[in-house]
């Protein structure tokens, strides 16, 4: 089994990376391969709401010039996914948001590619804004019908300078417990394949509030 993690921080090995690595270390102890993809230092354009990925059904975003389609295929091939972001104005870092908007739109409308994969979110923050960012990341997982492991608190770790988060003892424990629970959930999913049938997927209904 394999987990791909997306680091949405502009800093390659800042506190977001450290949070991901704590989770990854626990996964690796259980024999699960991990890969960290650095998204936050790339130039990624936001979704233009063109709808072509829904129309073409080719598992690709039509916008050129970046690695989003490559990252989508990594998500498809993985058994588990970790979304990691620092906090920018109580929200997901901009480049990460652009990537997630495009990638999850493609995956949702191309045979629900991420349905029933295991997904987790982690956040690194200096002081406050961690919970809003954590909730925003989880919105992508929930919309895709992914399976979300939990920890013993919300998945937020605190620190300013790179590596300072490792001094947040509770934050480190949160990430460690998350990694163990994620590995356990992934093994449950794997052992149930061919034995426990998943619920039938329903066609998405779209409504609005205009009467």
Q: If you had to describe this structure to a student in words, what would you say it looks like?
A:
With 211 residues, the chain is of the alpha/beta class. The chain has a single domain (2-192), classed as Rossmann fold (3-Layer(aba) Sandwich). The chain contains 6 helices and 5 strands; from the N terminus they run βαβααβαβαβα. It has a 5-stranded parallel β-sheet, sandwiched between helices. Strand 1, helix 1 and strand 2 form a beta-alpha-beta unit. Helix 1 packs across helix 6 and helix 3 crosses helix 4. The mean pLDDT is 97.
At a glance:
By secondary structure, this protein is an alpha/beta fold. It contains 6 helices and 5 strands. α1 crosses α6 (169-192) and α3 crosses α4.
Furnish the topology, listing elements before pairings:
Layout: E1 2-7, H1 15-29, E2 33-38, H2 52-56, H3 68-77, E3 80-86, H4 94-108, E4 118-125, H5 130-143, E5 156-158, H6 169-192
Parallel strand pairs: 1-2, 1-3, 3-4, 4-5
Helix pairs in contact: 1-6, 3-4
Tell me the fraction of residues in β-strands, as a range.
5-15%
Radius of gyration: 17 Å
Q: State the CATH topology.
A: Rossmann fold
The topology string of helices and strands comes to EHEHHEHEHEH
Level-1 CATH class name: Alpha Beta
Provide the residue-averaged pLDDT.
Answer: 97
CATH superfamily: Flavodoxin domain
Judging by the overall fold, what is the CATH architecture? 3-Layer(aba) Sandwich
Low-confidence stretches: none
In the sheet with the most strands, the strands line up as: 2-1-3-4-5
Structural category = alpha/beta
Q: Give the termini distance in whole angstroms.
A: 48 Å
Number of domains: 1
Question: Helical region count?
Answer: 6
Largest sheet features: 5 strands, parallel
> What spatial form do the alpha-carbon principal axes imply?
globular
**Helical content (DSSP H or I, runs of 4+):** 25-40%
Number of DSSP strand runs: 5
């Amino acid at each position: 089994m394999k987990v791909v993690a997306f680091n949405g921080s502009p800093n390659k090995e800042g506190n977001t990376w450290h949070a991901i690595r704590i989770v990854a270390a626990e996964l690796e102890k259980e024999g699960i391969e991990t890969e960290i993809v650095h998204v936050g230092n790339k130039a990624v354009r936001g979704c233009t709401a063109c709808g072509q990925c829904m129309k073409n059904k080719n598992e690709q975003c039509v916008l050129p010039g970046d690695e989003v389609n490559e990252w989508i295929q990594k998500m498809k091939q993985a058994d588990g996914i970790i979304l990691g972001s620092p906090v920018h104005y109580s929200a997901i870092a901009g480049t990460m948001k652009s990537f997630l908007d495009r990638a999850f739109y493609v995956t949702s409308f191309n045979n629900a590619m991420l349905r029933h994969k295991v997904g987790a979110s982690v956040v690194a923050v200096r002081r406050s804004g961690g919970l809003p960012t954590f909730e925003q990341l989880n919105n992508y997982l929930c919309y895709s019908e992914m399976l979300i492991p939990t920890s013993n608190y919300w998945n937020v770790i605190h620190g300013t300078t790179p590596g300072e988060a490792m001094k947040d003892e509770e934050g480190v424990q949160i990430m460690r417990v998350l990694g163990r629970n994620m590995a356990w959930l992934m093994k449950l999913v794997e052992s149930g394949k061919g034995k426990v049938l998943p619920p039938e997927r329903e066609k998405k209904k779209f409504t609005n509030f205009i009467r």
